[in-house]
Specification:
The protein contains 6 helices and 10 strands. With about 180 residues, it is α/β, with parallel strands linked by helices. It has a single domain, classed as Vaccinia Virus protein VP39 (Rossmann fold, 3-Layer(aba) Sandwich), CATH 3.40.50.150. The strands form 2 sheets. A 7-stranded mixed sheet has the order 6-2-1-7-8-10-9. The longest helix has 16 residues. The chain is globular and about 55 Å long. The mean pLDDT is about 90. The structure holds S-adenosylmethionine. S-adenosylmethionine (SAM) binds next to loops.
Length: about 180
């Protein structure tokens, strides 16, 4: 985040834009929202927006609802759970949790097939996560998708793959900065 904020012009009110491409039911997008909400508390005036996309309308319905089995939030630190997760009180909802409305408002979900030639979204993303989906595509498609996603990053923005998916071709304007983490040059 400090690296991204340094790229902003002085006086610019920073809005950090994050994208979970292949978001599935939204766990990744809401995790980003929790982390960003914590950071925004510490950095005066910091705003953030999160986009989640997936090819499946079924998972997107779940993502918008933001209701998860209790077990799924086990890895969320207790301090974040207290602030960002609501526990079901009705007996039918006892095994479930829901993300708080303040975070739900920060996350927008839309349908997108990563195979499409064009992605009708913002080209000024700061961080794009595309994890555990490229493994299903052949090599040329992986390269093409990575290239299209990279073109939606601001210079200096980050593209993050799953750990088994560091498939990037050297032709892309990206520099590797950690395993599975690339920065647009
Ligand atoms: C294994 S899940 C990964 C979810 C999440 N990124 C993660 O790492 O936990 C793969 C997701 O990719 C989505 N998907 C598969 N093919 C896709 C495509 N062509 N375009 C967009 N999403 C796709 C599936 O619907 C599924 O939700």
């Amino acid at each position: 985040m400090p690296k991204l904020l340094k790229l902003r012009r002085p006086g610019e009110r920073p809005t950090i834009k994050l994208w979970s491409a292949a978001s599935s039911t939204g766990a990744e997008a809401y995790t980003m929202a929790m982390v960003m909400a914590d950071i925004a508390e510490r950095i005066n005036g910091l705003n953030y927006e999160i986009l989640g996309t997936d090819i499946s309308t079924e998972v997107l319905v779940q993502a918008k609802l933001a209701i998860y089995p209790k077990d799924m939030i086990a890895p969320v630190p207790p301090s974040m759970r207290d602030r960002y997760v609501m526990f079901g009180s009705a007996s039918s909802r006892q095994g479930e949790v829901r993300i708080v409305p303040e975070l739900r408002r920060k996350v927008r979900f839309a349908r997108l097939n990563l195979m499409d030639e064009r992605y009708p979204f913002d080209c000024e993303m700061d961080v794009i996560f595309v994890r555990n989906v490229l493994i299903y595509f052949d090599k040329p498609t992986q390269e093409a998708v990575a290239g299209r996603l990279a073109s939606h990053l601001r210079p200096g923005g980050f593209l993050i793959f799953g750990h088994s998916e560091s498939v990037i071709g050297s032709s892309l304007p990206l520099r590797q900065c950690a395993p599975a983490v690339f920065q647009r040059v």
